[in-house]
């Protein structure tokens, strides 16, 4: 657990932004951050705060113990808690990368080490959408058809050398909080008058498949080191 920084949700988002800023400024070419929130919250895009019913939704979520925190990037509401391990991978794309496929490449550079790590634990991971999952996407990392890891990206282009810089983020559900997480997301949707609903059965926590998953974080860092070096990304972990 020493590798994992315990931060508030806002501090975690700020730490990711600082890593991206440093890489964008050319102060470094890469970085890898593991962090876990000190408290639980429902993190969502700032644009959702403009929805009619947001104030009622915010009060309802807070009443369930999931106060709302706003982020600058897009997507949908995502529960964050001490049972979640956040992985932030930042790098300037290597000169040989195909810029036309950089988004898919970045997702694979994030997801492949995660899949290799899970496979080394004796599990059978896959990628793809999961009906009923919150913040669903093509590059979910799944176990048994249920979502374990949600992923996202943020891009910038450095004016100094024209290289693209990416922040690829994964949120791993390490501990089983599926029921209260889904209740918070659905409460938000309901009070904002949105039809979307999510299901606890669409998710899985790693502790449901592997005991003491937090003990394996160093092994995950090693997977990133090996995979990224092979991809031509010098990674400081």
Fraction of residues in helix: 25-40%
Distance between the termini: 14 Å
Low-confidence stretches: none
Q: What structural class is derived from the secondary structure elements?
A: alpha+beta
CATH topology description: BirA Bifunctional Protein, domain 2
Walk me through what this model shows.
The chain has 237 residues and is an alpha+beta fold. Helices cover 31% and strands 25% of the residues. It has one domain: Bira Bifunctional Protein, Domain 2 (BirA Bifunctional Protein, domain 2), CATH 3.30.930. The protein is built from 5 helices and 10 strands, in the order E-H-E-E-H-E-E-E-H-E-E-E-E-H-H. The chain has a 7-stranded mixed β-sheet, sandwiched between helices. Strands 4-3-5 form a 3-stranded mixed β-sheet, sandwiched between helices. Helix 2 packs antiparallel against helix 4 and helix 3 crosses helix 5. The radius of gyration is 17 Å and the shape is globular.
Key descriptive features of the protein:
237 residues, alpha+beta, BirA Bifunctional Protein, domain 2, 7-stranded mixed beta sheet, BPL_LPL_catalytic, Lipoate--protein ligase family protein, aa-tRNA-synth_II/BPL/LPL, Octanoyltrans_LipM/LipL
Architecture blueprint of SSEs:
Blueprint: E1 5-7, H1 9-24, E2 30-37, E3 41-45, H2 54-63, E4 68-71, E5 78-80, E6 84-92, H3 102-120, E7 125-127, E8 141-143, E9 146-157, E10 164-173, H4 178-191, H5 217-230
Parallel strand pairs: 1-2, 3-4
Antiparallel strand pairs: 2-6, 3-5, 6-10, 7-8, 8-9, 9-10
Helix pairs in contact: 2-4, 3-5
């Amino acid at each position: 657990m020493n590798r994992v920084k315990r931060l508030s949700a806002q501090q975690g988002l700020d730490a990711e932004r600082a890593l991206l800023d440093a890489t964008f400024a050319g102060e470094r070419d890469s970085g890898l951050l593991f962090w876990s929130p000190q408290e639980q919250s429902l993190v969502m895009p700032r644009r959702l705060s403009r929805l009619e019913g947001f104030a009622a939704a915010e009060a309802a979520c807070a009443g369930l113990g999931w106060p709302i925190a706003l982020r600058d990037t897009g997507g949908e509401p995502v529960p964050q808690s001490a049972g979640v391990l956040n992985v932030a991978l930042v790098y300037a794309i290597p000169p040989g990368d195909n810029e036309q496929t950089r988004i898919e490449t970045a997702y694979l550079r994030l997801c492949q080490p995660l899949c290799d790590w899970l496979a080394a634990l004796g599990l059978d991971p896959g990628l793809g959408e999961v009906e009923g999952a919150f913040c669903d996407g093509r590059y979910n990392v799944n176990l048994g058809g249920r979502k374990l890891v949600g992923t996202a990206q943020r891009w910038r282009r450095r004016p100094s050398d024209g290289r693209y810089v990416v922040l690829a983020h994964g949120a791993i559900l390490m501990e089983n909080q599926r029921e209260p997480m889904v209740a918070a997301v659905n409460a938000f949707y309901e009070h904002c008058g949105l039809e979307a609903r999510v299901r606890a059965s669409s998710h899985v926590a790693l502790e449901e498949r592997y005991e003491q998953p937090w003990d394996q974080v160093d092994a995950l860092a090693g997977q990133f080191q090996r995979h990224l070096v092979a991809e031509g990304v010098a990674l400081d972990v």
